[in-house]
Amino acid sequence: MKKILLIFCLFMLTGLGCGSTSKEGADNDNPEIPPQIEVPIITSQDISLLSGDNE
Amino acid sequence: MKRFFLTIILLILLVPVYIHGDVLPEDSHLVHRQVFITNLTEFPQIQLLGYITGPMIQNYQIQVIEEDVPLSKGYKFNDIKIVAITNEAIEDAGGIENIAFDLIAQRKPPASIIDPFGGYVANSNPLIAEEYYFQVTVVTEKSLFLRLYRTVLKYNNDSPDRIVNY
Fold this sequence. Notes:
The complex is a heterodimer. Chain A is an alpha+beta fold. Chain A contains 2 helices and 1 strand, in the order H-E-H.
């Protein structure tokens, strides 16, 4: 019984039981905006490397 | 028997927590957020892709990003990151569906972008929609750069849209 209560308490304390599925979003007018985003480009070389790894 | 009843009581206590999970908090409303990338047709040699992962997705999902079409990640708890690929690489692989993006992501991690799910705000905040506009600025051999150039905020109290150009 103590074990079950302990698990329940841990569950509630860790936030898993406290609306972990709630998602706070735009809570202000200016969310953090990255000045510039670097996006990697996958090239033929990456595809070749992948093929090499698989062989 | 005692343990059985205790388990039942615990389950009864926990069920409302899950039921409440997807419900908005009281006195709050949703903010609709859209993220656009607007000049992709200027770079026809490259495809921009959304790399989507999440609790409802097995492994990952790839979404081809189109110009002026808002990013979408599906379920709100999914995560979308961005990666680009050359048309040549797609041809070499025989199509996007033949590429193991998860393996490539270990070498070239996709980039984070503003979450296209807006979330919610307190009703005291009149904000109802946010639009973020990015454009591709520089393309090198290994990467391209996206720059946020405009933000549009919309309100439900008859205030004019707030447009911020960067």
